[in-house]
Design a protein that fits this description.
The chain is mainly alpha-helical. Among the domains are: 454 residues, no CATH class; 77 residues, no CATH class. It contains 24 helices and 12 strands. Helix 8 packs antiparallel against helix 9 and helix 14 crosses helix 16. The longest helix has 43 residues. It starts with 6 loop residues before the first strand and ends with a helix. It comes from Xenopus tropicalis. Belongs to the anoctamin family.
Length: 784
């Protein structure tokens, strides 16, 4: 098996284990002496796995190296049947089946072709036995790793335990093991983010009564606000939005900026420490020096360009060749398709905007007082639900479009195809999921004009305005509903759908074959009745988590509870994924990988985007900057260099402009018939903006405070981004990709392996010399 680079035991030696555990033992002994007095108070490590149930799969007292047939004499082979583990044996068998000829005299090769022409219905490695039984199907009484994984990993009763990653790797292969290692690391890193986000939310709750802004809004019974829509929306008192002002303070308070900076730094720390964690896993799983074999050309590419060949500069063999002009033209068509689909998403968002503009008047004229008095919240809630349905429908379309465009590009190898498809699907779904959120965060209420000069769609519908308490409440509602619905739907589709499908398959099997009770079926038939694994591998699992990571970081300044919701979902997600891999899916083919692939680059891109979006959310969407400008420039403490709740006295009145009702457009007059508003005549109304009053020399012109706020917002964006990016780069520089202890171990092991290989070769050469001398002496004596 010289073609397969698999890491197996090489020249058994215990020097590495003794050398490195000696220092750790001394360190732990000193720690135990210091903590011995508190031993009764120390926790008993409830999250640790029970080592009596999990076997020791790793031979820690042996060095390892890539297996090669030419160096077989360097390896210790005690048992040929167990020399290769189960996952490796399945890879070897699959490798052979992919290359074997099944019809003499014809160029018909490989299992994939037999699956394509429907000669075989399916091909998959078998599970080791029932996940409920301890015995393996291969050897009676042998240990069943599937059962161990079900008990120690997939069972819901062990949700608080660490994952048995070594056993997962042994059963499913390194690629799936790395996914669960990354998911576990991401979930663990969410704990500090969730705790800080919860503290920010609790800080808003504890300071709610002392917030001067919300207090002024609740007490503003004499301030009349202009109608939020044409015809049916009434004039309303500012105090009517008291509840929304208090809810807004829970998310938009003085701790928001700190949390935005914290999450930007957290994203960098998460990625940097994941690189260190991945390096440790790669070392433990013998992936440090593992390199993938040169990838073979995809059959589709070979069939398309078989007439045009060139010499491979590496192998020196002729291979199919795609001309540069053909490749460019296909990329242009693919990019045009991506652009068109993004336009479809924008059109869908535009449709949601029209829905919001039209229905706000409908809800304002509703018969039920509860909906009529909360018309804007009802509009936002229904728009979010409709947007979610559109997102789910478009996701089905995006998968087909991405598959078509990727095949149109004709990637040369499987990894190129996978990276291209992954990038398209992520781009489609990211834009689909976040486009409406971007609209609410940065465009809602920004281009509506002012009373008497509103901007309109098709010169008819007036654009939607923000609530008197601000636009942040709409953004919070959008994120909360989308995040909860998306995660609930995903969890149902990942577990509920396979459960229903498998139940239906078993029911049909019993009816067709008359199987009753606990009739034993062969393992291949049991596994065949399970759900096949996704044809794109771990793509759906990674995509779900990456989109969640985007929700957790990109608009986290507007929704501090996002990390907490993500943490709760991921605790369920780990066990849910484990359960479906063990019980509901056929066993996937084990494969090797050194990292999570293109997803790491996408995570870095999301981390950079999160810094920019959070800067704009704080500067544009929230009222943090206007309040800061008022406290230092226009409030009671102006010029004193300090800020506080006492310095915010009068802020609400200063942030509202005055409008003369008689200056309204004819079709903007509010119909107050049947409304609960007082019957007195309204002469003036207020609206959120910084404009001169109607009695000024230039009525409704921007005031000096508007320009101060605008300059402060731009300055904050620049300072915030540069500061956070500096901190991110500094952290990236200070945190090395490899832990020092791991680097020392790698160098030490490399040194010892070289010595051991030299000694082994020297011993072999000396042994051969002795044999030659012995044979030569024998031949010399027999010559006479």
């Amino acid at each position: 098996m010289g073609f397969l680079l698999d890491w197996l035991h090489f020249c058994c030696s215990s020097r590495r284990k003794i050398y490195y555990l000696h220092r750790r033992y001394k360190f732990m002994s000193r720690m135990e002496k210091q903590l011995s007095r508190f031993r009764g108070l120390l926790p008993k490590k409830p999250m640790r796995l029970d080592k009596e149930k999990i076997p020791d799969l790793e031979e820690n007292d042996c060095y390892t190296a890539p297996f090669s047939q030419q160096r077989i004499h360097h390896f210790i082979i005690n048992n040929k049947d167990t020399f290769f583990n189960n996952a490796t044996r399945t890879r070897i068998v699959h490798h052979i089946l992919q290359r074997v000829k099944y019809e003499e005299g014809k160029n018909k090769i490989g299992l994939n072709r037999l699956l394509t022409n429907c000669t075989y219905e399916a091909a998959f490695p078998l599970h080791e036995g029932s996940y409920r039984s301890k015995n393996s199907i291969k050897t009676h009484g042998a240990e069943n790793h599937r059962h161990l994984l079900f008990e120690c990993w997939a069972s819901w009763g062990v949700w608080y335990k660490y994952q048995p990653l070594d056993l997962v790797r042994r059963y499913f292969g390194e690629k799936i093991g790395l996914y669960f290692a990354w998911l576990g690391w991401y979930t663990g890193m969410l704990f500090p983010a969730a705790i800080v986000g919860l503290f920010v939310f609790l800080y808003g709750m504890f300071t709610l009564d002392s917030c001067q802004v919300s207090r002024e809004i609740c007490q503003a019974t004499n301030i009349t606000m202009c109608p939020l829509c044409d015809k049916y929306c009434p004039y309303m008192r500012l105090s009517d939005s008291c509840i929304y002002a208090k809810v807004t303070h829970l998310f938009d308070n003085s701790a928001t900026v700190f949390f935005a900076v914290f999450m930007a730094v957290w994203a960098t720390v998460f990625l940097e420490f994941w690189k260190r964690r991945r390096a440790v896993i790669a070392y433990d799983w013998d992936l440090i020096d593992w390199e993938e074999e040169e990838e073979e050309i995809r059959p589709q590419f070979e069939a398309k360009y078989s007439k045009k060949e060139r010499v491979n500069p590496i192998s020196g063999k002729p291979e199919p060749y795609q001309a540069f002009a053909d490749k460019c033209s296909r990329l242009v068509v693919s990019a045009s398709g991506i652009f068109f689909m993004i336009c479809v998403v924008i059109a869908a968002v535009f449709g949601i905007v029209i829905y919001r503009v039209v229905t706000v008047s409908t809800f304002a004229a509703f018969k039920w007082a509860l909906i009529r008095n909360n018309s804007q919240v009802a509009t936002t809630g229904t728009a979010v639900c409709i947007n979610f349905c559109i997102i789910m429908l478009l996701n089905v379309l995006y998968e087909r479009v991405a598959l078509f465009l990727t095949n149109l590009e004709q990637p040369r190898t499987e990894s190129e195809w996978e990276n291209s498809f992954t990038l398209k699907m992520f781009l489609f779904q990211f834009v689909n999921l976040n486009s409406s959120t971007f609209y609410i965060a940065f465009f809602l209420g920004r281009f509506t004009g002012r009373p008497g000069a509103y901007l309109r769609l098709i010169n008819k519908w007036r654009l939607e305005e923000c609530h008197p308490s601000g636009c942040l409440i709409d953004l919070c509602l959008q994120m909360g509903i989308i995040m909860v619905l998306k995660q609930t739907w995903n969890n149902f589709m990942e577990l509920g759908y396979p459960l229903i499908q498998n139940w239906w398959t078993r029911r049909k099997l019993r009816q067709e074959h008359g199987i009753h009770g606990k009739t034993a079926l062969p393992q291949w038939e049991k596994d065949y009745n399970l759900q096949p694994i996704n044809p794109y591998g771990l793509f759906e699992e990674y995509l779900e988590m990456i989109l969640q990571f985007g929700f957790t970081t990109i608009f986290v300044a507007a929704f501090p509870l996002a990390p907490l919701l993500a943490l709760l979902n991921n605790i369920i997600e780990i066990r849910l994924d484990a359960y479906k891999f063990i019980t509901q899916w056929r066993r996937p083919l084990a494969s090797r990988a050194k990292d999570i692939g293109i997803w790491y680059g996408i995570l870095e891109g999301i981390g950079i985007l999160s810094v920019i979006t959070n800067a704009f959310v704080i500067a544009v969407t929230s009222d943090f900057i206007p309040r800061l400008v008022y406290a230092y420039k226009y409030g009671p403490c102006a010029g004193q260099g300090r800020a506080g709740e006492k310095c915010m006295v009068g802020y609400v009145n200063a942030s509202l402009s005055v409008f003369l009702v008689t200056d309204f457009e004819n079709h903007s007059n509010s119909s107050r018939n049947g409304r609960e508003f007082a019957e007195q005549y309204v002469k003036y109304c207020r609206y959120r903006d910084y404009r001169d009053p109607p009695s000024a020399p230039e009525p409704y012109a921007y005031t000096l405070q508007f320009w101060h706020v605008l300059a402060a917002r731009l300055a904050f964006i620049i300072v915030f981004e540069h500061l956070v990016f500096f901190i991110k780069h500094l952290i990236s520089y200070l945190i090395p990709d490899l832990p020092k202890d791991l680097r020392d171990r790698m160098r030490r092991e490399k040194y010892l392996i070289q010595e051991m290989m030299y000694e082994a070769e020297l011993e072999r050469v000396q042994k051969e010399k002795k044999e030659r001398k012995k044979n030569g002496k024998c031949q010399h004596n027999e010559w006479p």
